[in-house]
Amino acid sequence: MKGKVYITKCISLYNMATETEVLHYPNLKTVLMVEKVLRSAETAITRTELKEKLPKEIMHQTLNLILQYLEERGMLADTHKGIIWLYNPSPKLNRAISKGAEH
User: Fold this and answer.
1) pLDDT tens per residue, range 12-41
2) What is the DSSP string of 39-102?
3) CA distances from 58 to 8, 48, 61 (A)
4) Rounded to whole angstroms, how far apart are CA atoms 39 and 61?
5) For residues 77 and 83, what is the distance between their CA atoms, to the nearest angstrom?
6) Cβ count within 10 A of residue 74
7) Distance CA 67, CA 62 (A)
8) For 56-66, what is each residue's pLDDT tens digit?
9) How far is Cα 18 from Cα 68, in angstroms, rounded to an integer?
């Protein structure tokens, strides 16, 4: 099931990227690499800090495309203070949110 989700996400990423002129499309390994660094960050980090923490170099445009994709999916927030990872797939959290939304 997890593989199907990532394939769907990659197709969405490709569709989003075709709307603009892109020099280099990210592969799944690159997207997961960025995601891992963002998940492990304890506070908001800037794009520069993110690039420094990545195990390999990434083009700025490619990074922006990945961040745009993750932000549109609600997985992160890109604020003036930096980038913050938001996504939490916890079933307990989802139940608490749904119960809190009911009046």
Assistant:
1) 665 655 556 777 789 999 999 999 999 999
2) HH-SS-B-HHHHHHHSSS---HHHHHHHHHHHHHTTSEEEETTEEEE-----HHHHHHHHHHH-
3) 23, 11, 9
4) 21
5) 6
6) 9
7) 9
8) 999 999 999 99
9) 13
Contacts of 94 (CB under 8 A, 6+ apart): none
One-letter amino acid for residue 43 of the chain: T
State which amino acid sits at residue 54. Answer: L
| Contact by Cβ (8 Å): 83, 77 | yes
Backbone angle region of 101, left / alpha / beta, with phi > 0 → left and psi within -120 to 50 → alpha: alpha
Pick from 34, 29, 24: which is nearest to 10 by CA? 29
Distance of alpha carbon 24 from alpha carbon 31, whole angstroms: 13
**3 state DSSP class of 4:** helix
| Domains defined for the chain, CATH in brackets | 2-101 (1.10.10)
The two tokens of residue 58 are 């990434």
